[in-house]
Every structure is written in structure tokens, then in C-alpha cells.
Amino acid sequence: MKTILIKINTQNIDETKIQQAKQFILNHECVAMPTETVYGLAANAFSPQAISRIFEAKGRPSDNPLIVHISDEAMLLDCIDQEITLEIRTIMNAFWPGPLTLVFKKSHRIPDVVSAGLPTVGIRMPNHPIALALIKASCVPLAAPSANISGKPSPTKASHVYDDLNGKIAAIIEADQSHIGVESTVLDVSTSPFTVLRKGGISIEQLQMIDADIKYDDALVNNISTPKSPGQKYKHYAPSKPMLLLEGSLENQLAYLKTISMDDILLISVDEIIQNINVPHYFSLGSRHDFEKAMNGLFEILRESEFLSISSLIVTAFEDYGLGATLNDRLRKAASEKINL
Ligand code: TXA
Ligand code: MG
Predict the structure, then answer these.
(1) Is 124 near ligand 1, meaning CB less than 6 Å away?
(2) Measured in angstroms, how far is the CA atom of residue 290 from the centroid of ligand 1?
(3) How many Cβ atoms sit within 10 Å of the Cβ of residue 321?
(4) Helix (H) or strand (E) holding 205
(5) What is the CA radius of gyration of the chain?
(6) DSSP labels for 274-310?
(7) Is residue 292 part of a domain?
């Protein structure tokens, strides 16, 4: 299949380009679109034929449900079979549009292929003018997983989508880099108390400021429980080379790094470590407390490591609070080995 590239300027959206992308959606094809978290692979959420193309292009396991993207509340009501209580509305008002997916009981309009047979559906209103314009123009909600080959880091640039999916999908909207850089937080509001199923662009502390009862799904705090979000059980983001994750204090991480030969190893770490060690191959994600900056650069350096002549990677974990917990979640999923220092 020939993949068409549609270049759109986020600051000055050309409506004819949105119409071009919309035509593919109406023809049950997949279109990669920018969002503020990562690029998504969008298709008509009400069309099983379109949805099957998403699974095929990504090589995605069929038991992993898709997030449905909406541009307004009328679309939300089409997708769910659940009352929007005051608690839920407060959360929606605080974080939508934005990097938060809410899991509701699904309506009959959502095909089983979207929800992977679950009785629920994840819904997100993205905070990106191009994504919102495409959803509005299409007049249907758009199911969109991250636009990568399953298992690889999510794409934060159109070129990452091209590398993974050129020839497999109808079109890629080329726009700016995703400014958040990791996926949305998934919050289940279909049962009480509300539970975080996947860590993401909104921290649990931010959610608890709105609703103090919000908790993590048990599977996110122990290794025994079955995750309620099927995607959590898959290995993800992993570079093809071995990747060692160092957990523990900055002092211990630094002391450990000084004991080993780093000649053909890429060190991905923070300024406070990089400035205090002499290694040939390194990438700094920024200051250790600037979680947002680190989220913005993480997936890209994991992708770029594939092209470097190194034999393995070492990455240092962040402090485990706020969005540092999201960063650590992605690093733990990507790592082939971990050391607790
Ligand atoms: O930021 C994002 O969320 C991006 C952009 C494109 O919106 N999308 C994204 O989609 O990351 P994906 O498919 O790569 O990850 C969706 C995650 C999976 O872990 C999946 O298991 C979970 O959300 N999920 C979706 N629907 C669910 C449901 N009904 N119940 C539990 N988990 C669900
Ligand atoms: Mg994904």
C-alpha cells in the first residue's frame, strides 16, 4: 500500500488537508495523527473493518483494547452506557482535553473488536488541534492506539510513524513533535473507587487533588495481581539491545557506574550523573527533577539507540513520585535487566 503524507501546520491548520485525511477515515482506512501525548493510529471507532486494519498494521494482540478519541460530549454519550456522575464530571472538567483516558461501561455502538471483548471502553479527548479537527470533520469517534509497531516505543514524531508503518497504512499526518511524549494515564471510572490502570501524562497525585479516593490498580503496586488493563502485561518499549535499569539513590547509581567499563555502552541518565562521570556514549534526559522534559525525550532516544554502534544500554531510574513514577514504569517495561542499588 502507498502511504500518503499529509503535512499540516498546527499553528495554521489548512482545512483542505483535514478533509483529505477525513476521506481516508470515511473509507475505513487508518490515518496516523498527532496528539499531545504520542502519535496515534486513527480509524472510525464504529467500523469493525477499519478497526481490524489497525490491529493488522501494528501487529497488535487482539486482546488489547483501543482508546476511543472524541471531540465533544455528544460523542462521549454515543460511546458509553453509564451515567456521568458529579465525581466523573469534575475529573473530566479538570483534565479534558488532555492526557487522561477514562474507562466507562461501553454502549452497543462500540464494536467488540475495539474493547477486545471487555464490557468497558477507554475514552479520551486529546488536547491537540489537529486531532480534534480530524475527529470533528469525520463526525465519528476515532479509535487510536499509539502509532508504532506493537512492542516498540510509542512515536513522538511523524518520522517515527513512517519508520514503523510506511506501506502499511493509508496516510500519515506530518505535524509537530508530541509535546508530552508519553501516553495518557488510564483511569477506570466504571467501578468505585476509581483506579489508575496505566501510569501516564497525569500523575496519581494530580488526580488525587481532585478525588482523594483514587487508587492504583493492585497490579501496579504488586507483581501478583492480574492487570485490569490488558496492555500492562505486554513487554513494551524495549530496544533490541540489552538494557539495564539502575534503581536506587543518585549516589548509589553514580558509584555503580564508576565501577564498570562503559566503552560500548550507551548511558541514558540525568545531568546530575552525566556531569560527574566520564563516559564515551551518553544522553541526558535533563535535570533529575524535570520529569516533563525527561518524558519528552525518552522514547526518541530509545528509538535512536537502535542506530548507534553500542552493544547495550544502561538507564538510571527517577525518584518514584509524580511523573517520575510514569517514567520509571516505562523504563521498567523497556529494561531487560534491573539492579536495585
Ligand atoms: O496517549 C495515549 O493514550 C495514546 C494516544 C494516541 O491517545 N494512545 C495509546 O493507546 O497509548 P495504546 O493502545 O497504545 O494503549 C492503550 C492502553 C492499553 O494498555 C490498553 O490495554 C488500555 O489502554 N485500555 C484501553 N481500553 C481499555 C479498557 N476498556 N479497559 C482497560 N484498559 C484499556
Ligand atoms: Mg501503545
Answers:
(1) yes
(2) 25
(3) 12
(4) helix 204-210
(5) 20
(6) HTT---SSEEE-S-TT-HHHHHHHHHHHHHHGGGSS-
(7) yes
What's this model's pTM, rounded to 2 decimal places?
Answer: 0.98
CB half-sphere exposure, 163, CA atoms < 13 A = 16
Strand-pair category, 31-33 with 185-188: unpaired
CB 51 near ligand 1, within 6 Å? no
Which domain does 286 fall in, by range? 243-340
Q: pLDDT tens digit string along 48-69?
A: 999 999 999 999 999 999 999 9
Q: How far apart are CA 44 and CA 61, in angstroms?
A: 19
Q: Please indicate, yes or no, whether residues 98 and 216 belong to a single structural domain of this protein.
A: yes
The pLDDT-based confidence of 223 (bands split at 50, 70, 90) is: confident
Whether residues 108 and 178 share a domain: the answer is yes
Do both 127 and 269 map to the same domain? no
187 contact partners, CB below 8 Å, separation of at least 6? 91, 100, 101, 102, 103, 194, 195, 196, 197, 207, 214
Query: Ligand 1 centre from 209 Cα, in Å?
Result: 23
Does 54 share its domain with 197?
A: yes
Number of domains in the chain: 2
Can you spell out the DSSP letters for 36-54? SSS-EEEEETT-HHHHHHH
* Cell numbers representing residue 79 in the block: 460511546
Q: Give phi and psi for 27, each to the nearest 5.
A: -90, 15
The kind and range of the H/E element at 67 are strand 67-69
Q: How far is CA 278 from the centre of its chain?
A: 33
Q: Residue 151 Cα, ligand 2 centroid: separation in angstroms?
A: 8
Peptide bond preceding 65: is omega within 30 degrees of 0, i.e. cis? no
* Residue 43 in contact with ligand 1 by CB distance below 6 A: no
Ligand 1 proximity of 65 Cβ (cutoff 6 Å): yes
Instruction: Answer yes or no: is pLDDT of 190 > 90.
Output: yes
Query: How many other CB atoms sit within 10 Å of the CB of residue 252?
Result: 15
Residues 167 and 286 in one domain: no
For 31, the enclosing helix (H) or strand (E) is: strand 31-33
